[in-house]
Amino acid sequence: MSQKVHDGIIVDSSVYIEDDRKKDNPVTIRLIQYVAIVIAIWSSLSVLMDTLGTPANKIYINLAILVTAGITFGLCLYRSYHFVKLFFGVLFYGLFFISRIKRITNAFFIIENLVIDKIYAYYGYQLNYYNADYTRASEDITLLLILFLIPLTLLITVSMIKNRLIAISGLVQLLLIAVSFIFGIIPAERYLFAYIITTIYMIKSGDIGHSKDEQQRKLMKRISSRAAAYFSVMGIALFLLMKLIVTPQQYEKVEEIAEIKSEIQTTLSNLTFQDITQSFSDIKLPGHDTSVGGLDGGELGSTGRVEFHNIEQLRVTAPVSSITEGIYLKGYVGSVYTGDSWERHSKEDRQNYKELLNHYQNMGFEPINQVNGMIDELIEKEDIPESEFSLYNISRGKMYIDYQSANKKFLYAPYFTDYELIDGVSAVDDLYILPNKKNSNYEVEYYFNFSMNNIGLGNFLSYQGLLDSTVAEKSYRDYVYKTYTKLPEEGLERLKKDFTLTQEEASQRNTIELIAYVKAYLESNTQYSLSPGKLPKGEDFVEYFLYENHLGYCAHYASAAALMLRAMGVPTRYVEGYTFNSKDIIQDSALGGQSITVYDVGQASHFDVPQAQVAVKDYNAHAWVEVYIDYCGWLPVEFTPGSSMNNTVGMVEDMSEFSSIMAQKEEEAPDTTEVTPSPTPTVAAEKEEPTPAPQELTTQDKLKEQSSKASEKHNDVIFFLLLIILVFGAGILWLYMRIRKNRYARMNKSKNIRALYLFKDIEKLLLCYRNLPVSRASLEDCEEHIKDYYKFVNQEQFQICMDIARKARFGNRTISPSELSKVEELYRDIYVTVYSKLSSIKRLYLRILLEID
Questions:
Q1: If you ran DSSP here, which 8-state letter would residue 297 be given?
Q2: Is 766 helix (H, G, I), strand (E, B) or coil?
Q3: b (16+ CB within 10 A) / e for 810-822
Q4: 398: which strand partners?
Q5: Whole-model pTM?
């Protein structure tokens, strides 16, 4: 097969190129190569040193790079005695290495300890340190790094001078750069940029073909080196241009970049050995569709049978009174249903949520802590009247959660946990909590044993009394109904038809009645099973469960109930985690007591109560539904038949009744939003103290500021879109010029040259269809192979055209128009056949390949 070149005509794999730049000095090219080698070694080694924080002498390291690069560069240019050079080099290197083995070993232990520090700092995993002598740390590490850079320099020099081992050299440099990312550190700009530029140079300078002619190889090397230098200069110019155009401030303003960086950081920091082993254990082999446990991060239908192996996931210590009523440990929450999974918010919903938070960030309203905020506001009221009945009764205590085998990626915590008191965690929108760094244990404070006398509270509370939280909650409530009642635009047609309510029907039935209806429907029409079978390809998870299979476990019931309620206009979302109650207690003595706080009629009392320890096993894994109760927040609702967690119904009913009371209070309350007094300048001037601006005016100013920021972000997005369009347009223009140049060249050449161009195209066609033998030099050398393996090629026609090719290539006379027509006919026949057999992507690639070269 002939090789691809940019200039000249291919004749029996020999490349004939006219050197139009004979004035180039080879010394200049060698100097560029040497500089590229030095920069490549310097950038790779500097990233490693900065990442680990090695106390090496950088002056000695840099001098060693210059000297080592110079020696290896000279040895590679000297073409004789390769074996002798290699033998004595390895010999001297080995002898020196052995003579300094103690210092090298000490330096290695010190670097190991630095790595252990980085692992602990970023991953939170502590390893044992090695015994090392730190009195000569700088000298020993410098020696070790110099010994390391010698083979590294040799590898990079060979790849740039001899054009060998390029892939291995690139991989080694990439691994050195990747070390920083593994430990969550972004390399310095100068190192990363130098690495990219030298890698481009190394790859491009190695593109010299495989010509056996020494003069042609030298010439191709010079051309490739010049091209590599040009590409590197273009890369530097583009980088500097982008740096001038896109400032760091503009870069940081691009919201998507910040989100991606945050997600990468979270993913890396939460990566555990368990995640890696679990990824292998989750691979479903043919005939094996079982899964251990029940937590799949929102994935649905991938397993046909769930198995439990009695493996302990968590060890929980909590007050016995809170365990008795049953506890949900909330982990993953899904918002968007896709047919076979529950995903987090869409991009639009995330943006809307962030705008909502920006508006109310100064009011202390946090949807992830919403119920706790309502409880805090309630128990902080001091003007509660005396009553013969308790208006509410709430307990607050602590829970200690120790991870055994559970995934540390998620924080599994009970409902009504005060997340503000937990360090090192962050909220994923309004969905769930993720640890910023993996921990093996957590201490959380939470409310439990929650009961309310709603009639008494309704007479006591006024809508104005809770106005601060209610204003923010109302905006969040609008977001909730817009986001969490959405169903997929396509699919679920039968579910939408069966469960969508009219406005009149929805107004006549409250949330509790709709929940009871869905429970009754599921209990009557489905059956609980841990072996429902795998979801058939192309089927919707929920509709297959409801209307065809009728068998499922908790994930089926939670998903179906969430979507059925959404169709009825009730905001819901899908939750995965663990559940347990008093049956799971393994130890309730010798643990000591715990002091809890009980809030009753505005009074806080402290009691010492017994604790219990619970072993949360894999069979405690569960999925359930969260329902949004207006004015209150998200509450768990159980839909799986036979579950021991149905005692949450009372709490949901209490909250729902409280919601109805608050809705009535809101209707009775005067509309304060219309009362917006305008500040009078004369009055403000007469008073000694300035009159504070009304709250509504401040809010308007905030909205204007938010609008201005949104406009700036919008302008940045437009700028990046224009930049992308500009780059894309430049690429299209370059492609068009290449195609036009190629067509013009073919149209204005002799018949012989045009015939040879056609044979080049035939080679490309055959190569796209099936590789030709790499040992063959040209199409003529593959005649027998083509006749044997390319049956669609007319052998008689092919043989005639091959004779024409030899005549065009070696003959002294020009071929006739009829002979050129025969070659064109062969090309068309092969093109039609090959094109019809290729995939869409290969067709596009073939058309571009034929046009530009």
A1: T
A2: helix
A3: eeeeebeeebbeb
A4: 445
A5: 0.55
